[in-house]
Write a structure and sequence with these properties.
The protein has 138 residues and is α/β, with parallel strands linked by helices. It has a single domain, classed as Transcription Regulator spoIIAA, CATH 3.30.750. 43% of the residues lie in helices and 25% in strands. Strands 1-2-3-4 form a four-stranded mixed beta sheet. Strand 2, helix 1 and strand 3 form a beta-alpha-beta unit. The protein is globular, with a radius of gyration of 15 Å. The two termini are 27 Å apart.
Length: 138
């Protein structure tokens, strides 16, 4: 007996808008569902912003995000690590309650939502590395 799986296609419901509100800062507003089908689109966009614009700060506004699964979490962790390697700070803003809950349960809420003027929590690297390992196994 054979099982046929449908291919996972990028979500048509994901919208990504980039702006530069001040020198050295890039704001990326995301609207829609960040899941397995759309996380690659978001990953490529965010890494392109980092490599092409070389910002000091990237602010990812999740006010319009209605779902964040392990694929989306992985994108945020990978971007946070890439940003740190490039001397850039990543900050997540305006997470909706369901997204905030997912970030909180994974231990990433305080790490990813720390204000730019604040030092990230001491366990930032360990938390992100541990979360990346857990998410990669998922």
């Amino acid at each position: 007996m054979f099982t046929t799986f449908s291919p996972v296609l990028p979500s048509a419901q994901l919208s990504i808008d980039t702006s530069c509100p001040s020198p050295g800062t890039v704001r990326v507003a995301v609207v829609g569902e960040i899941d397995l089908s759309s996380s690659d689109v978001l990953r490529v966009k965010l890494l392109n912003v980092l490599s092409a614009l070389h910002p000091h700060r990237i602010e990812v506004d999740l006010a319009g995000v209605t779902l964040l699964d392990c694929g989306g979490l992985t994108v945020l962790v990978v971007l946070g690590q890439a940003a740190a390697r490039n001397g850039c700070r990543l900050r997540i803003t305006n997470p909706q309650p369901i997204v905030r809950r997912v970030l909180d349960l994974t231990g990433l809420l305080d790490v990813l939502t720390a204000r730019f003027g604040q030092a990230p929590p001491p366990a930032t690297t360990a938390d992100m590395t541990a979360s990346a390992g857990i998410l990669a196994a998922a």
